[in-house]
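Figure S7 source data.
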Amino acid sequence: MSDTMVSEDNAPLRKLFRPVIKALRTAYIQGTTVVKLMPSERAIQLYYKYRKKSYDLQWSMDPGYRKGLKNLVDLVIEQGDMVLDVGCGTGSATIVAADKAKEVVGIDLSPDMIELAIEKVNKKRIENTCLFATSVEGYCPELPFDKVISSFMIPHVKPHFRPAIYSCMFNFLKPGGTVGLFGSRGEVCDVYETRKEIEENLTRAGFTNIELHDVYDIYRIAVARKPL
Ligand SMILES: C[S@@+](CC[C@H](N)C(=O)[O-])C[C@H]1O[C@@H](n2cnc3c(N)ncnc32)[C@H](O)[C@@H]1O
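Tokens for the predicted S-adenosylmethionine complex:
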């Protein structure tokens, strides 16, 4: 699919500015290597305690991020789905998914990010979401989900632990369910997975039918299935 998901509106203007936009996006995403400085869950929670206010503003500066989230939802979620958003943060993906799904549960390690997500959901009067402060590893859903989505959480997970996190996502799904992951690319910034790494990690967790879609210069969407 690559960048074919980008609309053709303003195409000449976009072509002119494309190298600049790409350079800005690349520089920005390379800033996310700051996650390397967070050795524990407590450190992640502390970081987001102070980061939550600027978080949405920062991401709102790149339309590619918002479009990528929309692409993720379009690719993965169908009407009537029960969806889990893992590492939901301030609820950006949760809110987009809630527009289409029957219900969306969002979980995040940071109580501060969850607090902001709840504020946003209440402000928008969205009624089909539940948000919980918990780690992926500590979460035990009552029922399995049709779909699991996760956006930009994986850089917080040490590389050797990523297959275990994907195993959690696998276990959260019904047989035949789909996982959809949105993030950047290891080829652009080393806190993300390369194509080879994400394929290997998802395969180790039991997923099949893996599709990777590179979109908007630096972003990548991965979609995979839990076998029936
Ligand atoms: C970069 S933010 C992404 C937030 C949101 N998904 C988005 O796209 O805006 C990463 C989030 O992952 C959460 N996180 C990191 N490790 C986690 C874990 N083990 N379990 C649950 N959430 C985690 C962090 O607290 C943070 O809110």
